[in-house]
Design a protein that fits this description.
This protein is an alpha/beta fold and 526 residues long. The chain is 44% helix and 16% strand. Helix 4 crosses helix 5, helix 12 packs antiparallel against helix 14 and helix 13 crosses helix 14. The radius of gyration is 24 Å and the shape is globular.
Length: 526
């Protein structure tokens, strides 16, 4: 069924009766003479146009017309029909990418595109850059680090073969004075004026949520009239969105959710398991000591020293600033003691011996999977995880920031070629780096950040050639802040309910054979 016709019919139904779920809308479409549609078709149409349709976040979602839909609909359809930029030689864009660019253009070429990792948000930025080059504008692409600097540079050179593309930062000193497109590491760009005076320009900010920090926000130059932010989850734990990002970029204008990625078959179906373990007595004692100390010092930092209670990012920022003071200052001593207790509590959780034993029990699962990723919290835990898997016959290596650049490239290449079965990493793999396809992910250190969990899942739910589902297993210590029964992963789990094929809470007596059986049943579609 033609997309535009589907949208028109859905508008008619929702204008007449807002708040319908997908099954009610399907019944309405059938009454309007469309007997062969399914709920998947309805979902695809609804999620395909976040500017036109909005939902309430319930389970299942109830849909309505977006506030500005009536005025914007015709403009978005016209913008979506725009031909590809003349200088672009990349792959044909996906439907959601074309629609996202159209929505961004209708908002005056300002806004943020929020797309689940693996759905292709980089292509949106490349297409926007290509159109800007066609219009004789200069383009600055901001990235958070060296890997993304090289990654974006390679992508742009392939997609825009006739365009001069440069780099700034990481040992490179190219300029927009003699390049049409410049990829720059944000902390380098923040110290310089990047756009030539009087030149029209587009700023593309990859991992835009990172640039809400005051030092990075200096890179958001007001001279760029067109502004596009790209992110998997537009969220921060401080006030950076409100203070820096939203005033500069504006709101989220479009994107690609799990639902859209699955219905358009650009993400693999996936299954999720939560596996709880217990501390040993000595680990429990140390954790409780650090936890009690951190909680008491947090109260003192808030009540006695004026640190903001929420959001947590603002609190920890204030504590970090106080920790830089004189050792004679009681505020500084309390701040340093809090940070010490906070770090040691996190370390005990990250390096829990029962998690290592649970990982060992997953060795047969990793051996069966095509490739796998293990996400840790610290370099030590990542190295320990790789050692555990190697002892159990799985080719695994740690991927950490301590490695030299050539070592990191070699390990990614080995993983891509199948010479390595598993990469284990702390947060270095969470964002940006183009990780070769994997079908199994294991989280060793639970995070309360929905953004981090979504980014990690995005590493393993890229579509597989035989359409088998991916698997994602979260390890946690029972009775701690990682435990879902204590509120951990609540937002993440709610988001998964509608889209995951299976969500399982494994009991404490789950064996390696049980985990392998669960994994194999998923691969066979059972």
């Amino acid at each position: 069924m033609q997309r535009e016709l589907m949208w028109m019919l859905l508008q008619h139904l929702l204008a007449d009766q807002p708040g319908q779920n997908k099954r009610q809308l399907l019944a309405g479409l059938r009454r309007l003479g469309q007997p062969n549609l399914t709920t998947t078709d309805v979902n695809r149409a609804l999620y395909a146009n976040s500017v036109l349709f909005a939902h309430d976040g319930a389970t299942p979602p109830r849909w309505r017309m977006a506030a500005e839909a009536a005025d914007d609909f015709a403009a978005i359809l016209a913008a979506a029909a725009t031909a590809l930029p003349r200088c672009y030689r990349g792959n044909e864009p996906r439907a959601w990418q074309t629609e996202a660019l159209a929505a961004w253009r209708t908002q005056g070429r300002r806004g943020v595109v929020e797309a689940v990792t693996g759905t292709g948000k980089t292509t949106v930025g490349v297409l926007a850059a290509a159109a800007a080059v066609d219009a004789a504008e200069r383009v600055l692409v901001l990235v958070p680090g060296r890997e993304l600097l090289d990654q974006w540079h390679d992508v742009l050179r392939r997609a825009l073969p006739g365009v001069r593309v440069g780099r700034f930062g990481g040992g490179h000193e190219d300029s927009l004075h003699d390049h049409s497109v410049l990829v720059a590491i944000v902390h380098s760009a923040a110290r310089h004026q990047m756009l030539p005076l009087g030149a029209p320009g587009l700023l593309v900010a990859d991992e835009v949520h990172r640039y809400g920090a005051p030092t990075f926000a200096y890179a958001l130059e007001p001279g760029f009239g067109a502004r596009l932010g790209l992110t998997a989850t537009y969220a921060r734990e401080d006030n950076g969105l409100i203070e820096h990002l939203e005033p500069y970029f504006g709101r989220v204008v479009a994107g690609c959710s799990y639902e859209r990625g699955l219905t358009d078959e650009i993400l693999a179906p996936f299954r999720v398991g939560f596996l709880g373990v217990h501390f040993s007595p000595d680990e429990q004692e140390r954790h409780d000591e650090y936890d009690e100390r951190a909680r008491a010092l947090r109260r003192r930092m808030i009540l006695d020293h004026g640190c903001p209670e929420e959001p947590f990012g603002e609190f920890i920022g204030a504590v970090n600033r106080l920790s830089q003071g004189s050792a004679a200052d009681p505020r500084t001593r309390d701040a340093r003691n809090y940070l010490n207790a906070f770090t040691k509590r996190r370390q005990v959780l990250a390096e829990c011996r029962s998690k290592q034993e649970a990982l060992a029990s997953l060795a047969l699962v990793f051996a069966t999977a095509d490739r796998g990723l293990v996400f840790g919290e610290t370099t030590t835990s990542a190295e320990q995880a790789a050692a555990v898997l190697r002892r159990n016959g799985v080719l695994a290596e740690a991927f950490t920031s301590e490695l030299q650049q050539h070592e990191r490239k070699d390990r990614l290449a080995g993983f891509r070629e199948g010479k390595l079965k598993v990469l284990t990493a702390p947060r270095v793999l969470d964002e940006g780096i183009d990780v070769p396809q994997a079908e199994l992910g294991v989280v060793m250190a639970g995070s309360k950040s929905k953004r981090q969990m979504i980014q990690r899942m995005g590493r393993v739910i890229r579509p597989k050639k035989d359409r088998r589902p991916a698997a994602f297993i979260v390890l946690y210590v029972r009775g701690t802040g990682e435990d879902p029964d204590n509120g951990a992963h609540e937002d993440f789990r709610e988001q998964l309910i509608e889209v995951a094929q299976d969500i399982v809470d494994f009991g404490p007596d789950t064996s390696g054979a049980d985990l392998l059986a669960w994994y194999c049943k998923g691969r066979m579609g059972i």
